[in-house]
Amino acid sequence: MAKKEMEVVKGLDLNRYMGRWYEIASFPSRFQPKNGENTRATYTLKDDGTVNVLNETWSDGKRGYIEGTAYKADANSDEAKLKVKFYVPPFLPIIPVVGDYWVLYLDDDYGYALIGQPSRKYLWILCRQTHMDEEIYNQLVQRAIDEGYDVSKLHKTPQSDPPPEGEGPSDTKGIWWFKSILGK
Fold this sequence. Notes:
By secondary structure, the protein is mostly beta strands.
């Protein structure tokens, strides 16, 4: 049976979407450390209409991060279907990796969001705060189920309150990236 086309947000206001988002839960990704915590994304609109993406996570007390760019998948569509492009490995950016970033749900206040992509291999629940009301979380999980996601793979991301400020000690050698590729 073919999976139905996912519903995505229409009319995304990129200016309102910019800023910091905390990862409340996600499907584990080989591009993130398995013991990552305080994972967050910061989006900044550039003059050319693209978005600078800074993804950060802390692992063993050190900050790992990668920067990339997001842009509309179809400039003529009002659907919130974006493409994100990162270069890997992050310490020697030579290989472009492009993925889908579809905003499946966004509350009216731009306070929390459900992000996915057409293969349903990746899913994120994001919030402007480090913690989310359990009822809202459950509603987003139900939306993911309705869109055909296997939410048994969903993993809650530990978040500190307050979150780490600044950059902290960095993993400058990209060791987190190699560990994540090896599944550690």
